[in-house]
Amino acid sequence: MQNPFRNIPSVNELLESPPLREMVDQVSHSVVVSGVRTFLRDFRQDVQHAASEIKVPTAAELAERIAEWIVKDETPSLRPVINATGILLHTGLGRAPLAGEAIQAMSEVAAGYASVEVDLATGERSQRVLAVENLLTQITGAEAAVVTNNNAAATLLTLTALGNGREVIVSRGQLIEIGGSYRLPDVMTASGARLHEVGTTNKTRLSDYEQAIGEETAALMNVHTSNYRVVGFTEDVATAELVALGRKYKLPVIDDIGSGALFDLSKFGINDEPIAAESIKAGADAVLFSGDKLMGGPQCGIIVGKRAVISKIAKHPMMRAMRVDKLTLAALAATLRLYRDPDTVEQTIPLLALISTPIENLRLRAGRLAPQLAECKAVATAEPIEDVTYLGGGSVPTQQIKTCCVALTPSTGSVGEFAARLRNGFPAVFGRVCQDRLLLDLRTVFPHQDAKLIAAIDVDPVAPGPQVLDSTPDTGGDV
Ligand SMILES: *Cc1c(COP(=O)(O)O)cnc(C)c1O
Prior knowledge:
- By secondary structure, this protein is of the alpha/beta class.
- The protein folds into 3 domains: 71 residues, no CATH class; 117 residues, Aspartate Aminotransferase, domain 1; 248 residues, Type I PLP-dependent aspartate aminotransferase-like (Major domain) (Aspartate Aminotransferase, domain 2), CATH 3.40.640.10.
- The protein contains 19 helices and 13 strands.
- Strands 2-8-7-6-5-3-4 form a 7-stranded mixed β-sheet, sandwiched between helices.
- It is globular.
- The site of pyridoxal-5'-phosphate (PLP) has 15 residues, from helix 7 and strand 6.
- The site of pyridoxal-5'-phosphate has 15 residues, from helix 7 and strand 6.
């Protein structure tokens, strides 16, 4: 038998071929060389282990294949997405988009050094959180604040600092799961605190908490049921009542409010979201929330509350493992500054701009986009429709937000295949499939993205392989 490896072109021969020579201009020489080597190594292995003889492609064919493979390999798997799902706080799509001011602040501190832990007046070492603590206390009315990597970290740290080795009392109606890996009972176990459940799924009274208080009790905890509601024959305890009970027994009250709205958003259909300042006003000792949910800032966990409690949390050795970097601090401070002007905040925070867009605006855009989308080769029909959407992936039926979509049917293949093609396009587009149509929900699409949305859909439905390394970043329009 002839040596099958003899016909495989050499690395140098392949590098001389036009597709790979062009590739060197797009990426770099070393990336192409290492791509060719890796591809050839895998190919030799395939030849060696093949049951029957493999016909070795010509150098030109092989070069084409390698070039395509390098493009795929070089395309970052983390890239911008047009979110046409209608889900405003889509954890899979990175939650809140940042304000231009926050992006600007991040880029200013990113390139060089920054006063992360120094007091500019004295030159002395200072606390990392000072940059945002003043803003957080002004906005929420709290005495002190500390910032962690996310709300899961805030919860874990708070429970460890206040409850390790002892009991924390929580209602059975509030033992939440937020996505598979965050379950309150498991977080409690990881913190070293023991969960003491009280009441029932639908009814928990103040007396249930009081009867559970004993020698071992370290804290009382209230948890917002962000992604479900218990409705019907129900009863729960207001934060202020829990605080009064805590005072009586000298126990701190932890309030995990989840999304962390900084003001009332019920006029936009977002009801029953606890507001940080109200929980502080009710007297909670530690109020926990996410920075990248309703607040519309960077991913982080925020703990505001009484100085003594916050200081205990901030001094815990675990704090260091959960702290945020200068980029997050810069983005958070810039986001919070926008809240100081209530007249403009609904426009300056992108998440709030999306939430507050009047339905008439969406209707006009859907009406304009539908005929343009219907022209696209990949699209058979495009129809503007009215619908409802939700804040988060775990939809709460009490929080319906009115929206408008363009409903598409593909010209070829199933709607699932169509959706997959758009997810893999440039830019990637995520819609939602509903009754054999792909809905592009404009509630979560910024107006400046409309042209890009059409361009992403207006591609040949049968063209094979990836298109180009289009890495023009979607900056959010105004930066
Ligand atoms: C979202 C949420 C969390 C987790 O917050 P992350 O910022 O995602 O870590 C915890 N508790 C509640 C009530 C939530 O809604």
